[in-house]
Design a protein that fits this description.
heterodimer; A: mainly beta; Methylamine Dehydrogenase, Chain H; 2 domains; four-stranded antiparallel sheet; globular; B: mainly alpha; Serine Threonine Protein Phosphatase 5, Tetratricopeptide repeat; 0% strand
Chain lengths: 380, 153
């Protein structure tokens, strides 16, 4: 944990955190924990539990905080709640009827903070907005041509284009245009099309494996997405497609644009990985918070560097035998203090990356939550 | 009604649009036939008989007939298996390191396919030797690509 790339580690709960979100001024942190959403207030850099939002009766899958401080949570109980902060520090819940018959999987406020989108296993994206005259959150459905669970959503900064990905292997862009909320000026001159009626399929990209996360980079009209086969993909309005593999082959769960030419990804390898755009397309740049040299990784890199040695088959079987022996010796060490144990800040899969601090369109710090019940702040 | 969790609720909803195996097939522009593959197959055979195992393997795992039907894929697999089993054990590592990452991914797909059908299982030892070398060179990447890719061989 002496690593320079880790700024802070908060061990919050003894359960997986699927989703987290900081408020605009970073004073509040919301995390999902089992059937609840927990709200922490930061005083002098240490988190203190100030509220428990406990209206859901199944696992809460996602949480998001709008620019106005409204919290939205969605859950496997097929409902979403909007939590209005009150002056005494409590929250007033409003049930949003999503009209879906399967779990809600992800939720995202539009940049304006006046509507949000919920993805679900019912092959539906519900776009919800508040109707003053009825004092009610209305939910409108995007159905076609989604064929399977929607697992991730991202709004364009214009608040109209909505990118989604899921288990049917397609990354799709829909229009989430709501009359009375959005103006046509927001999408005037968009390279993605001319007309954006609500629910229209703007573009779709076939990928083939589960799409785990998707994120717009509105300034360059590009979309990044990560898939379960361990790849990062970047597409744009001209259908250019760039793909790069995870350095260790493990799948990514989440991505975050750092600037127009850098993306941070994280997932099953427990530490974030930075990719950068070079002349030949996107490439691996560096690992953040990677253990310097555990025996296992040293062994792996040894293998990669000595490909020439592998030509001799006797050699290979010899090193293979030794590595097996070494493995047993390592197992023998389990539970004992060993000097070369150098762990990552996250001890389990990372589930979500979000920007924590930004200057001039460049993310300088990112926050991450994971299955180990921690929230970690990384320096980029 | 104690078994209510097992009720197929989609069956009561005619508009459920449930996912079928056809839905997860990649959208291919056209279907490749065995005739179109015949030149490649004879090319593979001549490379193998001339002893150029390296080029033979590289060709075998390039541009596989993803869009073909089951029988086309099986015919092509037999040729791939022939090519792989003609390689001497000592040469495998060198050949695998000479492949591009995409070719390594395809190779692993054929190894898994081989282990799933009787023709391949008879050559199981050879397939496992290849598998061991590929994972030594490329790590788990080709395996996770195989598991997730809907382009099957």
């Amino acid at each position: 944990m002496s690593s320079q790339s880790v700024s802070a580690v908060f061990k919050l709960v003894k359960a997986p955190i699927y989703s987290h979100c900081f408020s605009q001024d970073k004073s509040l942190l919301a995390v999902t924990c089992k059937n609840d959403c927990l709200i922490y207030r930061f005083t002098n850099g240490s988190p203190q539990l100030v509220a428990t939002l406990s209206n859901h009766d199944k696992t809460v899958t996602a949480v998001d905080i709008s620019i106005h401080g409204r919290i939205v949570t969605c859950s496997q109980d097929r409902n979403a709640y909007v939590w209005e902060p009150l002056s005494d520090g409590t929250y007033k819940p409003t049930l949003v009827l999503l009209r879906i018959n399967r779990a809600a999987t992800c939720v995202s406020w539009a940049p304006s903070g006046y509507k949000f989108a919920v993805g679900s296993s019912a092959r539906i994206i519900a776009v919800c907005y508040y109707e003053q005259e009825n004092n009610w959150w209305v939910s409108k459905h995007i159905k076609k041509p989604i064929k399977s669970t929607v697992g991730c959503l991202s709004w364009h900064s214009n608040g109209v284009l909505l990118a989604s990905g899921g288990t049917d292997g397609y990354m799709r862009i829909f229009s989430g245009f709501v009359k009375g909320l959005d103006s046509k000026d927001a999408v005037a001159g968009s390279p993605w099309g001319d007309k954006f009626p609500f629910g229209a399929l703007v573009r779709e990209f076939y990928h083939g494996s589960y799409i785990e996360d998707v994120e717009w980079r509105s300034s360059i009209e590009s979309i990044g997405y990560v898939s379960h086969e361990g790849t990062l993909n970047v597409v744009d309005a001209n259908n250019n497609h760039s793909q790069v593999n995870a350095p260790d082959g493990l799948p990514f769960n989440t991505l975050l644009w750092i600037n127009d030419h850098e993306i941070l990804c994280a997932g099953f390898s427990n530490h974030p990985v930075l990719f950068a755009e070079a002349t030949g397309g996107w490439q691996f740049a560096k690992d953040l918070d990677k253990p310097a040299s555990t025996d296992l990784s040293a062994h792996n890199t040894g293998n990669n560097n000595n490909n020439e040695d592998l030509d001799e088959s006797e050699d290979v079987s010899a090193t293979f035998g030794i590595s097996a022996l070494r493995k047993f010796k390592q197992l023998d060490l389990k539970g004992k203090v060993s000097t070369d144990v150098n762990e990552t800040a996250h001890e389990n899969t990372i589930t979500q990356l979000l920007p924590y601090q930004e200057t001039n369109g460049q993310v300088t710090q990112a926050s991450a939550c994971g299955l180990d019940g921690k929230v970690v702040i990384y320096n980029i | 009604m104690s078994d209510w969790r097992r009720i197929d609720i989609d069956a009561f909803d005619p508009e459920s649009g449930r996912l079928t195996s056809k839905d997860i097939e990649p959208p291919y522009p056209s279907q490749v036939t065995l005739q179109e593959l015949s030149t490649k197959i004879s090319q593979l055979r001549s490379l193998a008989s001339s002893g150029d195992a390296k080029s033979a393997v590289a060709l075998a795992v390039s541009d596989p007939p993803y869009s073909g039907d089951e029988s086309t894929k099986n015919e092509y697999f037999k040729v791939v298996l022939e090519t792989l089993s003609n390689v001497r054990q000592a040469d495998i590592s060198g050949i695998v390191s000479g492949l591009t990452p995409i070719q390594q991914d395809v190779l692993v797909k054929y190894l898994y396919k081989g282990m799933s059908i009787p023709e391949g299982q008879k050559q199981g030892g050879i397939l496992l030797a290849w598998f061991e070398r590929v994972t030594q060179v490329a790590g788990v990447r080709p395996v996770s690509h195989f598991i997730n890719d809907r382009n099957t061989v």
